[in-house]
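Bumping my old thread because nobody answered last time. Still need a sequence for this structure:
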């Protein structure tokens, strides 16, 4: 089992920045990637970013490239999401997730079904 705990959410004005953290514990060596998703009220959970351990590669939702950056510590137990130039439409609960499967195609990690473990989420609210 892997436990994930997000932190760093809060209220920020449009144009501001936030850095989310996701601390992983447990059998972290069994994971192949960690990602971030978000879910706004009344909407489906959507992919934000992923980082893969085997290739150290990253992938982002097309609409977020250039504003959001995913990174990790050397131990691969904490994943960060740096969010810049925030917009009111970025308001959502942000979830951290971990996958045990090393999918060949990185785009496979864009689906929530690719992940085995989820955190409880952290609220991000961007005011206009």
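Sorry it took so long. Here it is:
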């Amino acid at each position: 089992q892997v436990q994930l705990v997000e932190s760093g959410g809060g209220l920020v004005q449009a144009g501001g920045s936030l850095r989310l953290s996701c601390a992983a514990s447990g059998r972290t060596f069994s994971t192949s990637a960690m990602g971030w998703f978000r879910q706004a009220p009344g909407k489906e959970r959507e992919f934000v970013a992923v980082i893969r351990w085997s290739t150290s590669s990253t992938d982002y939702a097309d609409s977020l490239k250039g504003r959001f950056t995913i990174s990790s510590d050397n131990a691969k137990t904490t994943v960060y999401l740096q969010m810049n130039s925030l917009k009111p439409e970025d308001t959502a609960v942000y979830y951290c997730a971990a996958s045990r499967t090393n999918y060949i195609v990185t785009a496979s990690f864009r689906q929530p079904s690719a992940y085995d473990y989820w955190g409880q989420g952290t609220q991000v609210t961007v005011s206009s």
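Residues 19 and 82 are 4 Å apart (CA to CA). Let me know if any region looks off to you.
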